[in-house]
Write a structure and sequence with these properties.
Blueprint: E1 2-3, E2 7-9, E3 28-33, E4 38-39, E5 44-53, E6 59-62, E7 71-75, E8 81-83, E9 93-95, E10 99-102, E11 107-115, E12 123-135, E13 142-145, E14 149-153
Length: 154
C-alpha cells in the first residue's frame, strides 16, 4: 500500500559533470554514475541519475518509491541479470500524486538507492538504469536507457 504526496522538479544547471549519456529519446537522455565502481556484496549504495531534457517539451513521470521510478539492473557477460530496485508495478496504489517534472532545457538529478543482495554472484557486471516518461499531453510513455557502467561486485 502506498500513499504519496510529494513533488520533484528539474533545474537549469550548466555545471553538470556527466558526459556519458544513454541514447536520446525525443531529446531526453539519462546518465548514471557511481562514486565507486567496486561494490561489496550485500551492501546498499547510491546511484546518481540525471535526466536531461534537451527537447522543447515538458516531461514528467510518476514516483512510487525511493527509486523514483528508475529501474536499475546488473548484467554479467553471460547475460545473467539482477534487478536492484523494487518492482513498482507490484505496488498497490491507494493515493498517487507524486510526480517529477522536467521543463525543456532542464536537468533532473537524484540519488537512487540500490541493494546488492547476497543472491548476486561476485564478478564483473554492467549496470544500467531505465526510466519511463511522458511528454505533456501525449501518450504513450517513452523509455530512456542510460549509459552502461562497468562495475565489480566483491
Amino acid at each position: 500500500m502506498v500513499f504519496l504526496a510529494n513533488f520533484c522538479k528539474g533545474q537549469s544547471d550548466n555545471s553538470l559533470s556527466a558526459t556519458n549519456w544513454g541514447q536520446s529519446v525525443n531529446g531526453v537522455e539519462l546518465s548514471i554514475s557511481l562514486s565507486n565502481n567496486v561494490i561489496p556484496l550485500g551492501s546498499t549504495t547510491r546511484l546518481q541519475c540525471r535526466v536531461k531534457n534537451s527537447s522543447t517539451n515538458f516531461i514528467t513521470w510518476g514516483v512510487l518509491s525511493p527509486a523514483q521510478g528508475f529501474t536499475v539492473s546488473l548484467t554479467n557477460n553471460l547475460g545473467k541479470a539482477y534487478r536492484l530496485t523494487p518492482d513498482e508495478s507490484k505496488f498497490t496504489i491507494i493515493s498517487y500524486s507524486s510526480t517529477c517534472e522536467v521543463e525543456a532545457g532542464e536537468t533532473y538529478e537524484c540519488s537512487v538507492p540500490i541493494v546488492i543482495g547476497k543472491n548476486v554472484e561476485p564478478g564483473n557486471y554492467q549496470l544500467e538504469a531505465n526510466q519511463h516518461f511522458l511528454i505533456r499531453g501525449k501518450r504513450p510513455s517513452h523509455e530512456l536507457t542510460s549509459n552502461l557502467l562497468d562495475v565489480q561486485i566483491k
